[in-house]
Amino acid sequence: MANETKQTLERPVLQALFLHLQEQGYDIVAPTLRDAAIVYDTVNTPSDLPIGWTDEQDAGRYRLKKRDDQAAFAYNVGPHSWKKYLLPPRMKLWEAQRDQKGFTMLDATPPPRKLALIGVRSCELHAIAIQDTVFIEGTCVDPFYKAQRENLFIVAVQCGQAAKTCFCISMNTGPKADSGYDLALTEIIEEGRHYFVCEAGSEQGQDILAGLETQPSSETEKNTANAIVEKTAQSMGRTLDTANIKTLLYENLEHPRWNDVAERCLTCGNCTMVCPTCFCTTVEEVTDLSGDHTEHWRRWDSCFTMDFSFIHGEGSVRSSNKSRYRQWMTHKLATWHDQFGTSGCVGCGRCITWCPPGIDITEEVAAIRENPV
Length: 373
Ligand code: SF4
Ligand code: SF4
Prior knowledge:
Blueprint: E1 7-10, H1 13-23, E2 27-34, E3 37-43, E4 53-58, E5 61-66, H2 83-86, E6 90-99, E7 102-107, E8 115-120, H3 122-135, H4 143-149, E9 152-157, E10 183-190, E11 193-200, H5 203-210, E12 215-216, H6 219-234, H7 245-250, H8 257-264, H9 270-274, E13 281-287, E14 293-300, E15 310-311, E16 315-316, H10 321-340, H11 350-353, H12 361-370
The protein binds iron/sulfur cluster (2 copies).
Residues 265-271, 304, 325, 355-357, 359 line the site of one iron/sulfur cluster (SF4).
């Protein structure tokens, strides 16, 4: 549902939005400053947002920088993604306790929380939609993911700037958020005025908006909001040519570029951890010393580890750096299409920023495209 009626809310009303959501039982999760980065965490008020801060990103580089205004959302995506709330990095699934009759199994999956996600960017809405395909729309539904997904209220923020690592335009995932949210805000700072142009994308969003002090946006305000996203689109940091990409990668599995990237790749797995669509997990048994109690934990895994492709009797079937990087990139950009009908990449650029040696997925594709075997 897209509601074309735009409302303007002045900056102080952001506090009322937080309060309304909290009164409806939502915990607010939003960008906030921690450890010299902008991360997602539970917050209480708009003053917990990274007000007056921005970031500078490039391959293998992330720095915070002070702004000369009080913008609340003037930065790009950081090392966290919203998947940590839908697919927690570590989660107990069940536990078993030994008693006189044997073992009693207990479901330990945590209940979903009502979460209001504030500041979700267009590429991130697309990443959530991709994970919905994996966890809700496939043959195996993940019950925690589904329950948590049904308990989200999403406040999107239109991007007012692109990082040097962003390439959402190439992936058709941004920068304008046009669906998948309950409310979408465009932040505007003008001489002596700080306000948001807001639109509802769901009935729930409309209800929340109706309870806030707003006024219909003027044509000038709407045009200003549109111009901000347009300017972001024009300043995209990178591009990735997706034409025929599936075939290109399938036909170049032995391209020399994979050896080149293998010399730079540390197989640290950072790219998979920060990626908003990567979803691989493993499970671990954790027993106590008595052997009477065991817990079954799920945690994020990465295709960059040796254990990931370990097969009994064979060992790791992807033992080289080359095979692991190739597996990751061809899954993102090629085999994902076969599995789920979309690309596995939304162009957020996180894997470029957070790769220690600055390996750049757009550059790797371009190198193969330029000189296919
Ligand atoms: S591509 Fe970069 S982030 Fe990914 S595993 Fe290799 S070194 Fe780590
Ligand atoms: S592959 Fe890289 S750019 Fe694409 S969605 Fe994942 S982290 Fe973002």
